[in-house]
Amino acid sequence: MSMRKQVSHGSGSSTNSRRTQQNSKVRCKCGNDAVIRTVKNGPNFGSKFYGCPLWPNTTCDMFLLIEGKSEVEELQWKMFEKDTTISELEMLNTMKDEKIKNLQMKKKSLEEEMKGVKNEFGQQQIAIMKCSWNNNMFKMAIIFSWIFFAIIYYLK
Length: 156
Hints:
By secondary structure, the chain is mainly alpha-helical. The chain is about 55% helix and about 10% strand.
């Protein structure tokens, strides 16, 4: 019961069908622990097989058909399916944890950038206030100089 996309294979697989040893993990050609999948069409429809956990994002063409099983093998098979599901969920959990860590780092970076922008904004506000004050002082200086010249002009 894999959470990944199921494989569709017919009988023309590149690997022969074999039985696996009891209580042993099956490894695919690329060295990863194989996962259990179900054939979706063809003469082996519904059959279970071992496949690469990285499929379809790999060139590994691992295909190990699992044939008729005894009751013990059936129970072992179900345990293996559960282990596969648990492994996939753990891998998804790890990927989510990494994503959360990356997002937290990005958040921290953006918060630091925001602090810098706030500081710059505050400095710009101060500069604008100084310019406004200087502008007002300049206007007052012009007005007083006109008044001064007017007084001097009328006193002569």
